[in-house]
Amino acid sequence: MTDRTLVVPGGHQVACAEYGAPDGSPVLYLHGAGSNRLEGAAFDAPARAQGIRLVALDRPGRSLPLPPTASPLAYAAEVAAVADHLGIGRFVVAGQSNGGMFACAVAHALGDRVSAVVPINPTVPAGDPAVRAVLDRSGRLAYNLIRRFPGLMSRAVSGAGLKEPTGRRAAHDPDAGLWQDPLIGAVLRDVAREQTTVDYLRNELDLGIVHPWDFDHLALAQPVEFFMGERDGGLPYVRVWSEGLPDSRVHVVPGGHIAHLAPAAADELVALLAGSPAT
Question: 84, 87, 238, 271: which one has the fewest Cβ atoms less than 10 Å from its Cβ?
Fold first, then answer.
């Protein structure tokens, strides 16, 4: 693993960690709101075995004292600058949760430079009426409260960082057992130890849920391979989203919102990345 800070054109700093095969086929990996680039360690061994160069990026404000991302499409320009800096031409982009939204924005903005996009339990576009039609009652309630009452954002942010579930929360969390896995538990604790700011987390929720996305999530020309935990709340909408795209599939594994980190799921995800058109 190589963990470093890049300075890309325009003087922007980007925290970046590379995993897998240094000379492998490039995949740019975008973390969820409460996570960071260190999550990529969960995929290091399978990426090395599959010949994947996995480049995991922090978004502005996550680990470096920078202004947060202005919008999903604005972030796409930064991803392009990082790829240029690293000598990467065409690539696959993958992202989990809010990172899934950003991955789709990157694909939308960069066109043929992105050969495939893999949203992993992505944030769903709350402005799409289909979201309200297919999400379960608790999912609709959470989205609607945050969108209609921005004052609740601070409370939502307080629980947005990655934390080990305990007590009743652990009993109802389909991914709680991952914290007990020797490898994945260590990865999750490394992620949780790297603190971030409330402003960064508030901006992430704002971009993902409160404001309409600044790109058309149904106008993705690349193959779109959704990778979903069977108990992730967004799965019903993702099935609808996938049907509205010209070239898309939904891959479902056991678990919830961070199911992709389980060793068997991580192997399956990396195999999917290795089989994508750019690799």
Answer: 87
